[in-house]
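Order emerges. For instance:

***
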Amino acid sequence: MKITKIRLEYLQNEEWYTYETFLIKLIKKTGSVAVALAALLALLEQNNVDANAALEIIRKSRLTEDIEQADLLRDRLIGALNNYVRSYLHDIDPAKQRAARNLMIVIDHYKNMASAPQDQESGMIVNFVKELEEKCADDMAAISLEERKDQLKTVNQQFITLQNQRSIDTGDQTTLRMVGIRRDGNELIRYIYSQTEILLKSAATPELTQFANELDAENRRVNGNLHRKGSNGKDSPETGTNE
């Protein structure tokens, strides 16, 4: 049995912490599974404690809610902009059709912006807007896209400003610490995936099989959520069985 893998880097910090917490509880639910994965479980539990401590500082920041709202707004604006351009692909005016086709080339190049990690999304939006402004000015004018482009540009800059301010408020050390915690946690989670698959081949038991099935089901559910998040007018990140 191959366990479905999650693109862990696509999860936001709280989503990632929730998933890690779920995995710990799932392992501990069955004694024989906890014993088989004991060494990895101990390391994962400590990583989970560290993640919670780092996130607690971020949660207490007065800016966190504003940042999350700005992130949601720019995701919606991306979807709205993409759908707006697509609506002209079959316009009765050939000039507008051509403009929409040209703009879709740029849109498709940045199709996973909204589902990317927050920092990565910020940079992708900056590049996306710059490419529209430098290469597609006439096409934007043909279908009156400038206002929607400017809205996305403004909200993205607001998000960047808020996030920078939170880094000052909470301290750069906390932000950097969470990056390291996630890196270590991702490595442990991937080890658990691979170790479970090895055990299923070499020493499968009903309990281990049940654990693997529940893990696979949760991973598929999480991947489904990532897919839906990325499908608001654009394609989703890859969610196959390999990471």
In short: Confidence is low (pLDDT under 50) at residues 231-243. Residues 10 and 117 are 5 Å apart (CA to CA). The first helix runs from residue 13 to 29.
